[in-house]
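Input.
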Amino acid sequence: MKPKIGGSLQVSLTSYKRELKSEIHDFKTAGYDFAELALGLSIKTGKTFEDRLKTLRNLIPILSAHLPSIDHKKEEIEKCKNFIDILSDQGIHLFVMHLFSPNLQTKDNFDLKIKTIKYLADFANSKDSNIVLENTEEDVITLKRVFDVIPKIYFCLDIGHANIFVKENRSIKLINAFGKLLKHIHIHDNVGGDSEDSDIHLPIGEGNINFNPIFEKLKENNYSGNITLELYKADLESTKLSIKRLRELF
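Output.
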């Protein structure tokens, strides 16, 4: 079975129902099979949030959610836990998170980050949900340290992120190292680079990533999870073309 292709959905969950329907119409017109909900720390949870989430789920399947990038402050961690609690109760059981933090370098705060991920992973498991850790700037060695001490989490391969801070895309190295843990994929294009500003989330084919060998490796590993297309400011036609190219790759 070929993977389903979803898109990152950043609609406001405090929008009126008619606004949600309008945004979802454009989303479905592009050809997405599902949505991955992009969650931010500024989103207020509560009855309005839960009601809008139910409305959204009636408009399009939501198969995963992306937790906010955090600096591991107590209130941020509890906000992520609250998201997991609410969404799990509504049938959303896959939660993507980063090891990367906006203001905390991993090498100096590794133990703190491990404590947070383990705490959230334990809570997610108690709700029959899973945390999938997404690669950003990390190499195989750093990620292996995480998976070695937290066996209850899975891996999310971000093919675009694997193309920055390196001379050669490291997706295949990551698949070789964590293929058995691979449960989800994020995909977007870029032209490489050595800074966070290089993470430009282009439509497929507009950067320099050679996706063919990466997808051959995924097929060789019998990858059966889903794929989320993460594009910044792409128009409808570029999005449709990206989805078409993805379906052809698999």
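The domain at 5-249 is CATH 3.20.20.150 (TIM Barrel).
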